[in-house]
Structures are given as structure tokens and as C-alpha cells.
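Dear colleague,

Following up on Tuesday's group meeting, I ran the structure prediction for the six-component complex that the binding team flagged. I've pasted the input sequences exactly as they went in, so you can double-check that nothing got truncated or mislabelled along the way. The C-alpha cells for the whole assembly follow below. Feel free to forward this to whoever is handling the docking comparison.

Inputs:
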Amino acid sequence: MNMYGIVSSVKRDYIADLARQGKRVDTRMLDQFREVSVESGPIKSAQGSARVKIGKTQVLAGVKLEHAEPFSDRPDNGVLIVNAELLPLASPTFEPGRPDENAIELARVVDRGIRESEAIDLEKLVIKSGEDVWAVFIDIYALDHDGNLIDASALAAIAALLNVKLPEDEAWTLPEFPLQKKPVAVTVAKINGKLMVDPRLDEESVMDARITMTTIEDGSICAMQKGGIGYFSREELEQAYELARAKAAELRAKLG
Amino acid sequence: MNMYGIVSSVKRDYIADLARQGKRVDTRMLDQFREVSVESGPIKSAQGSARVKIGKTQVLAGVKLEHAEPFSDRPDNGVLIVNAELLPLASPTFEPGRPDENAIELARVVDRGIRESEAIDLEKLVIKSGEDVWAVFIDIYALDHDGNLIDASALAAIAALLNVKLPEDEAWTLPEFPLQKKPVAVTVAKINGKLMVDPRLDEESVMDARITMTTIEDGSICAMQKGGIGYFSREELEQAYELARAKAAELRAKLG
Amino acid sequence: MNMYGIVSSVKRDYIADLARQGKRVDTRMLDQFREVSVESGPIKSAQGSARVKIGKTQVLAGVKLEHAEPFSDRPDNGVLIVNAELLPLASPTFEPGRPDENAIELARVVDRGIRESEAIDLEKLVIKSGEDVWAVFIDIYALDHDGNLIDASALAAIAALLNVKLPEDEAWTLPEFPLQKKPVAVTVAKINGKLMVDPRLDEESVMDARITMTTIEDGSICAMQKGGIGYFSREELEQAYELARAKAAELRAKLG
Amino acid sequence: MEKPEKLIVDGKRLDGRAPDELRPLKIEVGILERANGSAYVELGANKVLAAVYGPREMHPRHHQQPDTAVLRCRYNMAPFSVEERKRPGPDRRSVEISKVTREALEQVVFLKLYPRSVIDVFIEVLQADAGTRTAGITAAAVALADAGVPMRDIVSSIAVGKVDGTIVLDLTNDEDQWGTTDMPIAMVPRKKLITLLQMDGHFTGEEFKQALDLAFKGCEQIYDAQRQALREKYAIKRGNKK
Amino acid sequence: MEKPEKLIVDGKRLDGRAPDELRPLKIEVGILERANGSAYVELGANKVLAAVYGPREMHPRHHQQPDTAVLRCRYNMAPFSVEERKRPGPDRRSVEISKVTREALEQVVFLKLYPRSVIDVFIEVLQADAGTRTAGITAAAVALADAGVPMRDIVSSIAVGKVDGTIVLDLTNDEDQWGTTDMPIAMVPRKKLITLLQMDGHFTGEEFKQALDLAFKGCEQIYDAQRQALREKYAIKRGNKK
Amino acid sequence: MEKPEKLIVDGKRLDGRAPDELRPLKIEVGILERANGSAYVELGANKVLAAVYGPREMHPRHHQQPDTAVLRCRYNMAPFSVEERKRPGPDRRSVEISKVTREALEQVVFLKLYPRSVIDVFIEVLQADAGTRTAGITAAAVALADAGVPMRDIVSSIAVGKVDGTIVLDLTNDEDQWGTTDMPIAMVPRKKLITLLQMDGHFTGEEFKQALDLAFKGCEQIYDAQRQALREKYAIKRGNKK
């Protein structure tokens, strides 16, 4: 299943033709995000939570901390698990059931951004080496899908982590949750040879390919993921990196 | 899937018309059960078992006792697990596979009757607090489905519990199985505005709604479950309660 | 699904007619295997492995040894687990997904040959009685299916066991892997009343029935499995046994 | 939390409510872009979202009914909605709740108008504090109205129960856990027709009647709030169109 | 049970039987109302129920065969049928037994008479004491006859094995567990055609022949009992019709 | 293995390679009988098999696309291919790799030529030492050519990364585990069009550019080896036909 829905061929041509002229259906610039808002802590049953809206796209992320055994090859590391649900609530094309390849890719892209940037100091989450550690579950809940779920999800995840309150548990001895980086994902879509950020759903359904670049505060890259069946040239990738770096700073500012 | 099968529209009208007159297809009274029999202990490989027939409906229940860990929030309680299988043997509309919503509802209604009446003193099933308790598995096996599986299943379950012999296990120190109540479920069907007990399969396929009320010896209610897409008025519910209470006493007498 | 594919009715008649004359499509004798080769140790990530080719049929088997808890009713035995995957790579009729009844039957026939012949001395695989034993995982990977997967799989399994190198693990204290028998499966197909060994895929699609007999060095039988919807007479079974015994010796010689 | 000694002190419940008092209730209509209808309900600490898709073509086709639309309901809890993280995916409880939710709603929807179609109701519990199934039904009924699905009337839903021997309205999680009885109920309030009724715990016949009385009162308040929320949404919409 | 020192003492088995003796056998026909055919078999402590539905239309349609009916078999064990509760649902063992059961029965059924149809055979083991697959086939064959499915003949099934070096008929669980060899077999007894054969353990060629001899004898007794049970059912039915 | 102190000593990697050097590469074409096309790739200690079935009719039919063939890819690891036995069946990692593999290949295949059809690509990792997804894509591209599926060009794939601060080609498992960055990439080498790009770890903008440079060089070598393997196979075939 295509997660980007179907648009009529007339609209498809219209969007592609606009792109050729450097324009977009909603009059945005190619390098312009829709309105972005971050609400911290809407869910009290989670240790941390955040709701992110990018235009009409809505994602909720909740963080739960639980005791767990560490992985046998990482006895001195806490555990990070990212799960994403493309709720049937969010789109007529999403169906109930186990996460499909789109939901799995989404979760894994968010996971790699957090894991590879070492955003969480997992070593601080050890309670007893090799036996008992904190597991950080990040559950991403797509509520309304109007495009660019990846950026919304990654932003909601890091916002939820920033919102984490310490669990009321004797084993918790840290002064605060050991969050040390703020990785931000920016997805660049390619339509008719033009690169643009924050594709709307109708743009996603027309795009040739997308590339998500997750960067940290100093502009370096911690994760990338190309998607879609199209291709990128070398020049396009370098241009995408400049876009991702600039936009990540804007989004990071929303985290407060 | 509808678990009540399909009857022709002629038969449907006939049953509905009879109901209007206070009559039934098999000449029973509205408040009359079909013949009910309870056979204790047919299965020797179970710690307790019973076969219940209500008319041509047949249900077998088996009880197994096994060591288990208690639930972490109930360290001082044994574990009760009720499972129901709507065997493809029992009806042309039952299919092999994991329990569907009908089987799950059936199991959960039986479970609540036993659990909420505190029929089993779960605290007596603790071997070592927080570590080792007895788990009581009640497996309900629908063998032949001619209507009113809920009442037959609930009766088979309590009869199987009454039949429990103590396991040959060192950890078992109780003089007897701690059964302290006999909850009995009675399902009242509503057809064409009339209430009646023990619906046959053809009546179930016509009924607007059903309500199951599980009562204990003193006539008080421990569980209820409305089913079907129809509705009940307040007066109908009160009338159903009187029926359930009276019929439960009759069925309980069959338990010996 | 039929795992033997479909041949045209012309070819079907041709194969059956040849069989009547004691002949085969590829000019083999009824009691003649295709070319058989056994390659030991192609997979270094396994503790033992082997690739068997019988004609164009190819099977890879890999052995992994892992710590495990023994089964509660066998505290003084290691654990043997045989799994078979009919890879979609190997045949247009094999589909991705959990093992179907053909894959399960294949694994269980191989398992019984090894288990019932006591080919592995499971008692020697105990590290600590009732707590820690070696589990022997044999994974059978069907790569190319041109008939007679059972014999190829059983031969690959025993060849992979013969190839086992000791794990680099402190708990391993045996001088060598305790393999004490070489069971070999030979499948005899019945076509048009004639018995023949090593059916090709086109012969399998035509055969009435098959019988697999697994024998050990002294010619005694440790496992049998009839398959297919046809039947065998008593005389045919005795004849099949003579074939299986003779051919097993030939195949066993390939194990080196 | 440890079991408190008393759940009702001086006629007041632990959160200060009278026995027949609802928790604070908030209903928002049409908060999702993609769904054909949606509603968000807060009832005390419960936060529940419902969305409706359809009537739309039923796939796969062999599930189509030639003379009617099919109503499907899914009740689901977010992993982070409860104290201990819930593993994603349906469990036995959610399968049963999905079934009784469908049965609670189906009667009021004019399904026959849409043969071969399906109407999907998706309920997501984002934060849970007892009463999520009834809050879900309340939200779903509003979402169906928001989707423009023709209905005889709106279904309203609430739980009643028994706590410290007193019949109370709208139990919290603590009251559910430490109290005696929980009875979720749904009805068409205008005609007082009950479309969902479950109960577990202990009721004498007399207590059952009292509980029904209280349930009717509670559902009327829910009903008023549902209609008010719909009115506000559509009043604003009409206003905007000028 | 601990492994006994001997399983055969003075030519008698632990339950007093001679090596070539069946356990007590009871076959009842047509004991289920809804199924098109059914049978109940007790063989020693085994209690097995079989039901047949069909020939009926095959769903989903793309599984229909234009020139033949399809036979499907499901062998299943009740959770309470064995010492340690069995988790519900198919496992590898039951999938394999379902397959060989189907292959044991398919040859005798005139499937070509019912193109595009399916005949379903459901076998439920209610209480198990070794030999459940053969008791299931024995029951299924009777249930097929009870359903009026046209068949060339009846299939009969039993296990033989080797215990303390002796070839024995119809093993109990203890004999299966502590003995050497188990060989379940099914056949069309009149023509002596073998439709199921499995074996695990140890047989020399000579022992295999002895085991076959004993299996033929055993299946004949099963066959007689099957026919007797069917005669009684239908004699009574005919009697009733007068 | 313990983390080594250094992964690059005197400009040489632990296995003696220069930073821009591939591991030994072997490509064999058409090694499976039943598949329409197949290829086997060894890259260092990686052993990967790819097979192609199709274009063939798509089942079930409602998945058919009226104007195009559908490309399906399955990446799978053998249980014995890794240090700790991998449980059979797809996991989240293999589902993602299957998706990006399909997206890496789809662009070059003339799918529109085969409406209503499906082309299946099955990739089996028999022995793994980092870089299995790129070796799988390299093998799959050759298998597609071997199957005679019309393609614009061949896709070539390799990983680059950063180890001890140095940009290196074709990481081993040790380098992947103890190094900083892994960036698998696939491209149409002739036109330098990138069809797969993933990365995790750490790159500055400048390092990213260096890594791309190295990836282009590596893919060209892969591309030469792919064409060479295909030439040999088909040269021999043509030779045989004389």
C-alpha cells in the first residue's frame, strides 16, 4: 500500500508544474515549513509526552520508563525502544493491525536519530549492570496525516523526551533524565527535479523521492534515510543537506 | 460473522409472530428452559470436568490446576483463566483459528461470573506469596451449538469446578478446592418485545437483543452482559432480573 | 497447496507409461539416485554446515549450538530442534511466511530420524542437570527444489552434524560433538504401481504415494513416513524397505 | 496506590464529588482533518479520541452486505495511556469492548441507507482513568454526527457503580479498583432505551434499580453536553460561512 | 510415572492385555446435532470426537477446484486432554497429524462427485492416552459414513509397536513413552491397502514384518467395530421410521 | 570480540585493506535451477543468494495493477548466518531492508511492460559480515538481469563509513560495530543516480561529501564485477550453443 494516498492526474500535473516554477499548492516557499507547534506534556499517564502539529498533521508521542534486563551484549546500557502506530484514525489508507513497512520504517528512522546522536546517555540508565536497567519506550501515535509524518514524529519524540519527569521509583537516583542532544529530522522531497521541505500529503503523493536528514546542534548528521522509488544526484544530496541543517535549527527552536 | 446463523425470512416472521402471542417454536413457555443435564467428571485428564446439555446444545468444561507466578499487582491471589473455544465441530458457522469476538465475549462473561462472585477463594490458592500460586484454567469447549451457549458454558464451568479433585502435588495443602459460591448465568432473549429464557439457535438468530445476568445463591447479581444490537427498556431489565433469579435457582439445583 | 507443482497431462501420462515399463524420464534405473554431492562446512557462522545436491535439488543445513534450559520432563538431556524453511527462492510454489504443513512435515521427518536413532547422545549435552544444557538447532534451508527434498534434507542435516566444530565456550568440556549414528532417509515413490527411489520434481507431481524410511548403519529402521494420498500394499512396503536399506548405504558413503 | 480506608467520607468522594456527580466533562467536535467525523472527550483524567470514516466502499468485497452498510468499531488503548505500558495491539479486553461498542451504536445508525458500504468507528484512549469504554461511546456518537451519518438519535454513555455501599456515578480508577461494583451503560437518553449494559461486582435487585436511576440521570447530562458541543461546532461553522 | 522395570510381565502388559490385544473399544455414531456426520470413539482412556461438515460450498472461492471436492482435516487436542494443559491452537505436531490424517482418508472418498465443494473433517481429542491420531482416523471414517459421504470403503486405524522387545498392538501412553517403537497405521482393511504409515523408534526388517502382521489383525477388529456401530445406528433409525 | 584499541593502523585496516579498498568480491550468475534468474555474491565473509521469479501473474488478483507490474522484494537472514542463531521469520530490521531494497531497484526496471504481473526478488543472507543489504541489492540486480527482466541499467550497491575518523569503503562487522558511521548506498553507476541512501552515526557535512566520493568509486567496482559476471555467463552460454 502506498501511504501517500492518490491524487487525480490533473492535480498531479498541477503540483509538478508548480514545482518546476519553484512554487507550491499552498503558496509556500520551497524551503518553508507549514506552521509548527509543540505542546509539552498533554498526557499525564506517560513519564513524558508531546503533541506536534505541522500544518494539519498531528502526532502524539509518549515516553514510558520501565525496568528491564539489558541486552546481553550491552550489559552497561539502558534500553531504547521506539514504536510507531499509523492509526486508522489518522488516514483513510491506514488500516488496523500490526505495524506495516511504513510504520516500521518511521519508527526506525526516529530511533536511529535518537540512538546515533546519543541523545540519551544510555549508560546513565543502568541500575545494576547486566541485570536491571531503565528501558525508554517511545510510542509515536500518528493522529492526523496530512504529510511529513517523519519530521513530526521525530520532533514529537525529542519533545516528549525533553518533557520526561522522573519516575517515582526507588531505583531512580539520577537528578534528571540524561538527555544530552536534540536531534531533529528534516525531510526533503523531490518533485519534478525541485527540492522542497515539509511536503504536504498531496505533495508526497506526487514526489519522486524523499530524503530525511537528522542533524544535531552543530549541524552534523546523525542519520539519513532515502525513501521512494526516485533517485537523487550528488548535487541534490548536498543541497538537501543545506536545507536540512537550516530547517533543523528552526524546528529545534520550537522545543523551548 | 454472526454466530447465530441465518434462518429464512418466513421462519423469522413465524418466530416473531409466535413471540408476540407469548409462544415459542418448540411449544415451551417463555420462562421455560429446555431439558438440562449436567454430567460430572467425564474427563479424567482434567482435575475437574463437566458436560452440560441444554436441549441439543452441548458444552464440555475442563479445569486444570498448574503452578504459576501471581500477577505482580496481586501477589496474594491465585490466578483464574477462562478460555472458550467455539469448535468448528459445533456449528457450520464456527471456523478454526484463534478465538473470535464471540468466543472472547463468551469466555469473559463466564470469567466475570466466577471472578466477581468470588466463587473461588483465590487467596487460598497461594503457595508462596508473590512467587508461586495455583493457576486455575477453565477451558470451555462448545461441542454442539443449538443456542444459549452462554448459560451452558457458565453452568459447565461451575460444575467442572465443583468436580475438581485435588492435584497430586506436594505443594497442595488444602483439604479441598476452595469453591465458596455457585454463580449461575441466565440469558434472557428479547424477540418482538417479548422476553424469554434459554433461546434456541433459531430464536437467537431472530432476537433483537439478549441480556445475561449471573446471580448467586442469595439472588444478588455478580455480572451482567447485554448483547445484540437491540435495546432494553428499564422495565424489561427489571423483568429480566426476575427471570434470571428464578431460573438460576432451577439450574443451580442441577449441580447437585 | 501441492508442493510438487503441476505437470501437463501429456507429461503425466508419459511418466506413468514409462514407469509401467520400468523406465524414467531421465533414463535412470528405478533404483538409481541422481548425482549426489555433499559439501561440508560452507557456512562459517554455523558450528556445523553442509550443502547437499541431489541432481538439481539443493539443500543447505546449518547447526547452531546454544545454551538452553532442558525440558522439564527431560532434565538430563540436551535439546534438539529441527526447523525447515521451504524458501520462496527454491520454487515458484513456495511462498514466504511461516512454515506450512509441508515444511513442518519435512522438519519432523528429519527430526525423528536423528532423534529416534539416537544419533546424538543428548545426555552428553547436559551442562548442569535440570538447568543448563546445549540446544542443537538444525536449520534446513531448501535452496532449489527439483524433487526429493526429504532425502536431501536428512542427508544435509547429518552431514552438518558431522561437520560440527566445538563452540568456543567455557561450558563446553567434551572432546568432540557426541554424534554416534548416521541415520539416512531414503524416499521411495510409487508411480503407476512401480516403486522408484529419488523422485524428480516431475515424478513427484505424478506419484501416487511415497514412503520415507530412515535406516542406520546396521540396516534397521528408526523412522518411517508415508506421504501422498495413494496406498501401499504389504509387498510394496517390504520392497521399499529393501530399496531404502541398500540406497542408504550408498548415500552414507558420501558422508566421508 | 494503597487501598484507602474509605472511598467516601462525609458523603464526598476522594476527589470531592457527590455520589451523583460527573467528573468535569469536555467535548470537542471535528478536531481531525482527515477523518469524516471526529470528537475528543475528556472526562476527568480520561482523554479519548474518536474518528469516523465512511460510509465508504467495503473492502474486501465479499464482506459487503447487499442491503445494508456494515458498522465496524475498534476500541484501542495507547501504550502510554495507562500506568504500566500497554503492549500495542488488540487484547481480549479490547476485542470485547469493540464488540459491545458496536452493538451500543448500531441501533441508532440508518445503515440501510448505504448498502455495500462500511462505516468505521475508531476509538483511541490516550489517557485512561476508568470509564474509557463509556467515554469512547460518547465520543463515537458525536463523531458519527460530525461525519453527517444519519442517526435516529445520539447515544450517551456513562458508568455507575457501588463504592463503600453507596451507588455512585462515573467511577474513577481508584473507585473502580477498590469499590465493589462497576456498571457501564449506554442508552438513547430521550427514549431511555439501553443499548449497552455490562456489570461486574455485586448488586442486590434493589441496588440495581438505584443504579439504573442514577445511570439515566448521568446519561442525560452526557447527552446535553454532546448536543451542546455539536451545536457550538455547527453554529460557528454557519457563522463562518457568512 | 517413573519408568517401570518391565512393561511386559509373564506375557501380560501392565494393563493385563496380551501383546496382540486391543484396549476396550467403544464407537458411537451421530452424537452431534449440528454436524452432517459425527462419531465418538473411546479406545482405552482415549476419548475422541469427529465431525464432518459437507460436501458444502468452498469459501473462499479461489480455493475451489473445478473438477473435485477438497477434503480438509483438522486434528486438535483439548487443553485438558493431557497431563500438562496444552495451549489452544495448532502446533507443529497437530499440523503434521492433520496432514497425514487427510492423506489417510482422501483415497477412499469419491471427491470427484462434488466439484467446487469442500468436505471438512474435525477431530477433537478430549482425553488422550496414546494412539489419538489413529483413534481420530477411525472416528473420522465413521463420521464420514454417518454424513452420507460416498466412500469406496471405510478406513481403519491402529498403532503397533515394540515394548520390551515384543511386538504389541495398541500402545498405551506408558508403553509409548517407555517402549522402543511406535508405528501408527491406517488401511482399507478389506483390500489390505495402507493409507497411513508412520514409525519412530527401532525395528529390524523382521520386526517390521511382524508389526505389519499385527497391524492387519488389529485393523480388522477396528473395522468390525466401525461397521457394527454404523449398523446399529442405521438399524435403529430404520426401525424408528416404521 | 572486544573493542580493539585501533581499527586503522598505519593506514591499514584490521584485515589489511586500504581505506578505499573493497573486500574480495565474487559474483556467480544463474546458480539456481528453478528460479527465473539468480545470483550468488560473496563479499568478504558475506554470502548472499538472490533469486527472481517473474514477471508472473499476480495473486491474489485484487493486488494486480492494471497498468504496471508490481515489484516485491524480500530480504531474509538464515538462522545460521549470524553469531547468535536468528529466529526464522521477518523482524523489523528485515521489513525495513526489504522496503528500501525494493525502492533501490524499482526505478531501473521497466515495470510498465508487464501490466497485472508481479516480479518477486528473494534475497537470502547465508553468512553475514556487515554490508548484507548492499550485497543483497548487488546480487538482486544481477539476478534480475539473469531473469531477462528489461532494465534501464544495473544497480550497484556498497557501504561506506567512518572508522577511527577515516572515511572507509565496505565495512566489516567489526568496523561497523566499533566504528562511528555506516552509510549503505545504491546507485545506477553510469549516471551516478542514487537510489538507496541510509546512514547512521556521525558525519560532518564535509565528511558526507568525502563519503559520497568514495561510494561512487566503490559502486563502479561493483558495477564492473556485475557486468563481468553476466558477460561470462552469457558468453559461455552463447559458446555452448554453437
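Chains C and B do not touch (no CB pair under 8 Å).

Cheers,
M.
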